[in-house]
Amino acid sequence: MSEERRRMLLALAAVCIYDKEREKKNRRCWAKKWLLQRPRYSHINLMAELALQEPNDFRNYLRLDSCTYQQLLSLLEPMLTKQDTCMRKAITAHERLSATLRFLATGRSYEDLQYSVAISKQSLSKIIPETCDAIIATLQEEYLKFPETEEEWLDIAKTFEERWQFPHCLGAIDGKHVKIVPPANSGSYYFNYKKDFSVVLLAIANANYEFIMVDIGINGRISDGGVINRSIFYEKLNTGSLNIPRVARIMNSETVLPYVFVGDDAFSLRPDLMKPYPGPYLSPQQRIFNYRLSRARRIIENIFGILVNRFRIFRTSIKTIDKIVMAACILHNFLRRNCNQYIRVGVDIENLEDGNISTGYRANNELLGLQITNQGQSQTMARYVRDQYMQYFNNEGSVLWQNRFTNLNTFT
C-alpha cells in the first residue's frame, strides 16, 4: 500500500469517527427529564390529596368518587397492568386509568394532558385507546347488555309504566351526530346536514337512565331518516328476532296494545315504534298523547345531555371515535349503578313527582340531533296503534297532571 493511499484511509476513518461523535452529542434523550420524574410531577399526588381532604373536588376532577374509582380500577387492573423491564418501570394501571378518565372528563388534547399526568403525548395516544378497549371488554357484558329474552323486555316495560306511566314501552330511542376529525382522504363521506363532520350515535335507553343499546359508526352523510335502517337493531326488529313480547292487555285495563319503542319525528311511525302526532293544529287528545310520549322519550334526551356534561370529550372533535364513545356510554351505565351522586334529580333529570318534561340536561349544541324528515305515508296499522294509545291516555290511563302540562310548548 502506498503512503498516499494509507493517509487517505486514515483521514477517512478520522472523519467517520468525528461524525459518529457529533451524532452522539446531537442525539436527543429517549425521554425528557421531567417525564422521567413522573412520581413527582404526576396528578396522582393531587388525586391522593383530594381523596383524603376534598372528596367533592375529587368527584369533580374525574367525574366519580374515590370509592367508585377504586372499584373501577380493581375491575380493569388485570388488563391494564404491564410488565416492568430492565430499562424502565411500566406505567401503572392507576396512572393509565386516571389519565383516560381525565381525558374523557375534559376533552383536552394529548399534548395538553401530558403536563398534568406526566406521560408523553406519544404514550397517551396508545394508552387511552387501550384503556377504552379494556373498559369495553371488561364491563360491556354486565353494564351494556341488550335484552335477549321476553322476560328482560317485560322488566323494562314494567319500569316504564311504574316510573313514567307509559305502559308497554320497551325503550326510548334517539340518535345524535358526534363531531369527529375526519380520516385522511375521506372527502365528504362524514359531512352532515349541519356542514360538519360526524358519525351517528344511535342509542336506546331504559326507564332508569341507562343505555341498553349503542350503535356508533354510521357516517354523518347518511340521511337521518335512513340512520335507523342501517342499524343492527332495525334489522333484528324487522326479522322479529328481538324476542319482543306479544300484544297483551294493559295492567288494570281492558285495553290490548302491542309493546313499542318511543322516538321523535326523525323516525318512521311503525306499529312497534311510536312518535308524536305531527303539526301545530292538534286536538286536546292528541296533545295529551304527545305529552305522555315525550315524557317517556325525554329519558334518552337527558342521557345524552348528562353524557356531554360529564364527559366533555363530546364537546370537541373526536379522533378514535368508536372506542371513546362506546367506553363513555359504558362508564355512564357503570356510574349510574355504582355512584350515588352521579345523577341529580331535578337538575340532571326530571323530578318524578312534578311531571315536568322541561327539566334536565339536554345535548343542545354539542351533539346534533337527527334531522326531522318526511317519512311518507305511515302504515295504517301504525296509525291505529297510536290512536289506541291516545284513547288509553285520555281515559283509564290518564294521570292527574296531564291536562295542566298539555298547555306548555315543551314537547315535540
UniProtKB/TrEMBL annotation:
<dbReference type="GO" id="GO:0004518">
    <property type="term" value="F:nuclease activity"/>
</dbReference>
<keyword id="KW-0540">Nuclease</keyword>
<keyword id="KW-0479">Metal-binding</keyword>
<keyword id="KW-0539">Nucleus</keyword>
<dbReference type="GO" id="GO:0005634">
    <property type="term" value="C:nucleus"/>
</dbReference>
<dbReference type="Pfam" id="PF13359">
    <property type="entry name" value="DDE_Tnp_4"/>
</dbReference>
<keyword id="KW-0378">Hydrolase</keyword>
<feature type="domain" description="DDE Tnp4">
    <location>
        <begin position="173"/>
        <end position="333"/>
    </location>
</feature>
<protein>
    <recommendedName>
        <fullName>DDE Tnp4 domain-containing protein</fullName>
    </recommendedName>
</protein>
<dbReference type="InterPro" id="IPR027806">
    <property type="entry name" value="HARBI1_dom"/>
</dbReference>
<dbReference type="InterPro" id="IPR045249">
    <property type="entry name" value="HARBI1-like"/>
</dbReference>
<dbReference type="GO" id="GO:0016787">
    <property type="term" value="F:hydrolase activity"/>
</dbReference>
<dbReference type="GO" id="GO:0046872">
    <property type="term" value="F:metal ion binding"/>
</dbReference>
<comment type="similarity">
    <text>Belongs to the HARBI1 family.</text>
</comment>
